[in-house]
Write a structure and sequence with these properties.
Elements lengths: L4 E3 L2 E3 L4 E3 L8 H6 L19 E3 L2 E3 L4 H9 L4 E7 L5 H11 L7 E4 L4 E5 L3 H8 L5 E2 L2 E7 L12 E9 L8 H7 L5 E5 L1 H4 L6 E9 L9 E4 L2 E4 L1
Antiparallel strand pairs: 1-2, 2-3, 4-5, 6-8, 6-10, 7-8, 9-10, 11-13, 12-13, 14-15
Length: 233
């Protein structure tokens, strides 16, 4: 009867050593133990080591405003896409962005949950391009866009929205980005003016895209003063 024994890396059948068959692939231990160099998206911020505090018997980790402000600044150009009924695959979102949105650089796309995606853009110009986009369908899913804000929660309704609105009663000579940006301060934050407005193809009304804070009362109208004359907008 042949006896199989493992001797120093070989199998032995009683007469001849038989080389061990090499294993195919890596073991779980090898895979987990292998370090991979990954490039971090955000620059690390050195922090002062703090002792863990207790508040109402619960551990509390507190950061100062000086430490937190740089982290929020790194999220200034972040947009959230909220889908209904469900979020498409990230590959589909990236392909849609590349085909439909003329951005300066492709954003970093990540999943927040089954309905939300996070887009980290290269700058405010790309953020504006995404927010003012008229398209709200991606495949079979509908979506809304809004700017990421500190304290954002996927289960809470966003506190801001983007809307195209028409300004009546404004002199056509003000149909310039610089003036429209200042005029919109009477309502909310100006994002972009419609090309037809800037080209005076419809001088009766100025169509602008604004970012509206839903926590503030809705403005029904406001006045613009020009050469001692008030215009109701």
């Amino acid at each position: 009867m042949q006896r199989w024994q493992r001797l120093l890396g070989t199998y032995y059948d009683g007469m001849h050593p038989i080389p061990e068959v090499p294993r195919v692939g890596r073991s779980y231990v090898d895979a987990v133990g292998t370090s991979r160099d990954s490039k971090c998206l955000f620059v690390d911020i050195p922090l002062v080591r703090w002792r863990i505090q207790l508040k109402d018997g619960v551990p509390l980790v507190a950061f100062t405003d000086a430490e937190v402000c740089p982290t929020y600044r790194s999220m200034e150009h972040v947009v959230v896409l909220k889908f209904s009924p469900d979020r498409p695959r990230l590959e589909e979102i990236r392909e849609f962005i590349q085909v439909n949105w003329p951005l300066r650089l492709q954003p970093v796309v990540g999943a927040l949950d089954g309905k939300h995606a996070l887009l980290i853009c290269a700058g405010e110009e790309d953020v504006t391009e995404i927010l003012e986009c008229d398209s709200n369908r991606m495949g079979n899913a509908l979506f809304r866009t809004f700017r990421w804000m500190p304290g954002f929660l996927v289960k809470a309704e966003p506190s801001s929205m983007v809307a195209w609105t028409r300004l009546h009663g404004l002199d056509s000579c003000f149909y310039r980005n610089s003036f429209l940006r200042e005029v919109c301060l009477g309502v909310e934050s100006f994002l972009k003016a419609d090309e037809r407005t800037l080209c005076l193809q419809n001088p009766a009304v100025a169509r602008v895209c604004m970012e509206i804070d839903l926590k503030n009362p809705l403005v029904q109208g406001f006045r613009v003063s020009a050469r001692r004359r008030l215009q109701w907008i």
